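Q: May I have one protein plus its fold?
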Amino acid sequence: MMSQRFPRSRLLITIVLIATAGCATTQPVKQVTGLDSIEPEARILLMTPDIKVYTLTAGGVPELNPDNTRLARANFVEAAQRHTKGKRTHLKVMEADLSTRDPELARYERLHGAVAQAIDQHYYNEAWKLPSKGSSFDWSLGPGVATLGERYQADYALFVTYVDMSGSGGRWALSIAAALVGVAIPTGGQFGYASLVDLRTGRIVWFNESFATDVGAGDLKTPSGADAIVKNLLDAMPGA
């Protein structure tokens, strides 16, 4: 079953990108920041990353791969720790799946998922701009999130969502056969975003989206691939 916290439309867009891409690219799509800088010694809490690894079947149906998902999530966390080592901020990693035991934490993870999807749909898409927001980047989880900052002794929360899809053997065979008659069949792709939330105010102060139209551009199942993806997502984060 697909993660309900990840926009289904983005799964489809990722697939379409593979079909239309003329060459392999890995690049940030958009980045928005409400911070010029971040205070020295700031404490950033990395929430349990919402990472999913799917296999795209011959029929084009994404099937979740639990083992690869667990491996990808662990590699991402380790890569994030390497990426921020020696920086002026302090990265604290949330205990894995703590949200299953902390209802308030789970509530804010769901809330962030909904807000991030709204940013994706209504801030970046001119046709769906919200009149109440205008062109300003004004998104928040609400001041109540300050309780998480107090509980986990953090100034900011870093949320990450990432989806990786790679084609099955049957999907690749179909793609090759289709290519012989001039038809492009997508075989996978990646999409993700990261956001930084000020736990004192609830405001989302930085947001970054990233596409990868080549599955080999960064493989979360390997440490080096995870390093590449973390760099792509987090390099421009204030304090990183």
Summary: Residues 1-8, 13-29 have pLDDT under 50 and may be disordered. The first strand starts at residue 26 and ends at 33. The longest helix spans residues 103-123.
